[in-house]
Fold this protein.
Amino acid sequence: MRFHQLGPDFPEELIDDLLEGDAVFLCGAGVSFPQLPGFERLVTNVYARLGEERTPAEEHAFTAKRYEEVLGALARRLVRSNDVIDAAAIELQVPAVADTTHHDVLIRLSRDSIGRPIIVTTNFDTLFERSLAASHSSAFAERASVAGQDIPAPGSSTFTGIVHLHGRLADTELNLSQTDLVLTSAQYGEAYLRAGWAARFLFDLTRCRTLVLVGYGAGDAPVRYILNVLEGDRERFSDLRRVYAIGSTDRDEQAAAAPWQALAVEPVLFQPADGDAYEPLWTSLGHLADLVEEPDKWRQATIERVAALETSDATEHDKRALKWALGQRADLFELLVQSCADPEWFAILSVEMKAFDARARAWLLAHWFAGNWTDRRRFLSAVKYVENGHLDLSQALFRELDHRRPENPIWEKAWQLLAESASERGRDSLVDFQLKHRLDRPFVADTDLGRLVNTIGPHLTVEEPFRYEEPPAEITELSDIARFSIEGDRQEVLRDALDTSAGRGDNAVRLLRLASERLVSLLRTARDAELIDLTRDTTDWTVPSVVRHEQNRHRRGLVPLTVLITSLLPTAIEVDRETVLHLVSGWATEGFHLTTRLWMHGLSHAALFNPDEAIHALTTDRTEAFWSFAQEFVSIISAQLANASLETVSHLVERILMEGLQRYSDIPGRHEDLDWKSRARDRDIWLRLTAISEVKDLPQAAQARLDDIHARRDYLARQLEEQDLFRTWSSGVRSVRGKTAQLVSAQATERLSIADRLEESRDIEDQAGWSEYCREDPIGALAALKSRAVDMTVVPRWSEWLQVVPHRRQDGLDGVIEAFQDAIDYLDTANVEAFAALAAPLSSILERAPALGLTIPDSWRDRLWLAAESDPGVEWTDDWELYDRVINSPGGRLAEGLLQAINDKRERTGAVSEADLSRLRQMILSRTYAGSMARGACARDLGFLYTLSPRLAGDDLGQFLTDDNDEGQRLRAVLVEHNSFTAEAEIAFADFILRGITESRQKNISAANAASHLVRAVLASFVNPPQPRGISPQQALRTMRQSTGDIRVGALTIMTSWLQEYPEDERGHAWTDVFGPTFDAIWPRDRTFLSNDVSREIFGLAAATGSAFPAAVSSLLPYITIFSDDWINLHDLERDGARLATLHPEAALDLVWAACRPPCKGRTSDIAGILDAIAEAQPALAVDRRVHKLRLRAVSY
């Protein structure tokens, strides 16, 4: 936490310790500066006061800043050694008018759990006592001052006051006498080494208190003695508390921190200010003291200040301060709710909010939402919480809505609907599957039928608006706030429910009633959500068919529930016709399109309605259903019309003829819009009359009307097709296959003209006609292409034809390879512009030519390269890597093709053409985009290029590999990720390799490939020591230190992979002789390089060492940290029946314990088998406490 722009960043853990009274300040000479001298000036002043000069030995110690040794040497050569002490005492006398401002602050900070001051200091002066005398009394200060060997034991009830660890000078004003001082090297040796009382005190102190050093430099004598003692103890005792040191960065934070970190101290550094360098420190300590003394006041002020900010305007220190202020303080979250401006604060504070249970978090959020019901950001934030399954939010929102309703009715409706949608969320798939099994039992509980309906039925969903939608200035409807819809999830889990007991007998009737009630309830909710109004019903459009149909595929929402209802009808009618009839009749009165469609579907069931009843109900219905729902209309006609009376049919036809002519007449429109009305009117009449005519003969007037429509609308002169019954029709997802019929039947000279016409068609399959024809008949397509000269007008056609070139000769159909040879000869006559436009596909053919046995004119490489150099390229983005571009660019393909051609020629003849090398050099040196792609291709095969020409590889390409620009970095990345070098090439390119590895930001296999250069070089140095290598073990180690964690993990991956390539019985020797020494040589020993990923890989490496497993485990254990994964993979040790654990039980237990010991929280199904094998192989280990604790990590299936 930072209190000043230049001040130190105090760790939150330190602040917590200060508040608990668990931290003690250890104060050095810098606290009393500039009133009293520091150690260096004290030594100088003592020499001056005694009139002595430093001897060469003393000067040497003085230069090394070992001032206690300087004074020790001086005391040894003086007649009266106490003269040194006396002179120092005079120099350190408290000024007549002492300034204790700094001491006041430290005393405010350094107190025990009941508020008593406790300061430990190596200073001899009594400025701390003067501070206590001013704030309390002289008598209090006298009692509080202890020194030397009289100091109280840390942790005891008497451990309080001012503790002078190195002694105290006399202070007559406070009636304090002088004690023995620790000043010279001999006295330091007595206190810390021979008698050791100071060392024991510090050890005990750091076991019970956090230590904060202030007023010291890392090289000061007290620090060296104190921290060396503590570091030795820290290796043996794990309960030592942290040690912090407050100091200056001296304008170089890294350099200032290093000496402290070397002593296992956590530096807390401030930046010196201009003028008073230490002002940032003491101001910060003063504010820290304010916090410690009145933490609630500080917390409240911080919450009010930071929470009022937008998160984008808050600094990281602001966020940390707010998180700390709210940490473990549930009582202050109400203040957050009152102050918070940005909903993102709740996401940032998610960890702190876990102090509440889910219900309390929901109430807290709802209270904040209610602070401004009309704030759109708050609403959309609530939407996110609902989407994430915040189940308790519904009840909390309803409570707030009851407590203080929004004044705006639209906002009130929006919040109520959101609360309702929250109550529907959070279904558990496991519960659904359990329900499915219960439904298959003979007895099905009524509650389970209700659960089935609720699961199949959708729910109201509220989502954020699409990003491109700008919020309106004024909210007038729900859609201005968010997107409301009726959606479902996991509805398919129970799609076969009707095949269970739930769909049989009385259950079917009850299930039908529950499903109907659920549907009507959802439709009413949809109406509330403005998805249904007087002019539109979006729910209806989401259900293509109320019965099972292919058009319902991939549809959710209301479709499964609607289909459940219609599927239940036949069974339910058989069981209880009267109940079902009453239910179906009720659907007609609900006023929703979907229930009306269900009612019409019910009319088609002859077991419910006789033909005349069904047709009469349809004819006399005065709603839009008659004209709106074609599928259901036709279904009634098909099922019932054949057996209806002539009178009933006559009434039906009369309505069609009379109302049909008036359709759309009430819709206003411009004169030019009138034709659509006539077309729509004719289609409505045609569909209904045609459906009737397919069952019964039409009356004469109706038939005349239908004939008239046929005459005027030739596209309607046909029978009904299924898609006519749907408002929208999906033909499903299918691949586009070009139509080639016109091209196949045409003459060769006509085909290109036809291809041009097809390309302009609206039909996507027509547009793909030429490319499909090229694949079907490449020879016929070539004949068409050769009918015209090669110019820019036919370049698009040639480009598509050239795409069908096979990769290998055996892949080509009969005559295709010959056709491509013919095309190459013909294209050689192309003009410059057309040839350049075809550079990309021709470069691919040039690259594949050797494999296909094609003969390419000698001039093509140069012509294509000239064309490629005109390629402007594309902008680089983070999504593209260099080699990905190389293989997709003309320049890269040409370079790769040339390298392949050179290799083929050298294998055949043993020679390399100077002309080809010259071409390669031209490509490498080209400053164009094509040149950069060619260099990428050459970098990928740098090892091969080096065998061709060390000059080309080292000098020409090398100048680009050396560059510090983006291209240089990309080339080095390709070099290390795609090459395997011989020893000679490694020597030549060592600098590029090492630099490329250090720069690499790759992961997984690419990182392993980069790291393999280091592993290979060092492995080789152990396999064949006389063979010189370009990368030494020292260079490999340095590069491993400088590289990313992914590179280091990749090195371990490679070592494990290569070791596993050895036969099982040879792995032990391979580890002992080669891989073990290689690991020791290249792996950094610093703890900072350990990680969970490293531990996983080292675990796997140990398991690959065969018979050397015990020795490997012993050497690798220090590099394994406790696994932090939730799910732990121990398969490397568990495989083959835990063979290694059986052969080497003690080593296996050591390895598993190192990775999975407490406080590991992960679980694994592998560990039980390993532990069983260990116990069986060595029964004595079965009672090992480690085995008992490790079994807690086991998961059994």
Observations:
- Strands lie at 23-27, 118-121, 145-147, 161-164, 210-214, 243-248, 266-270, 459-463, 483-487.
- The mean pLDDT is 87.
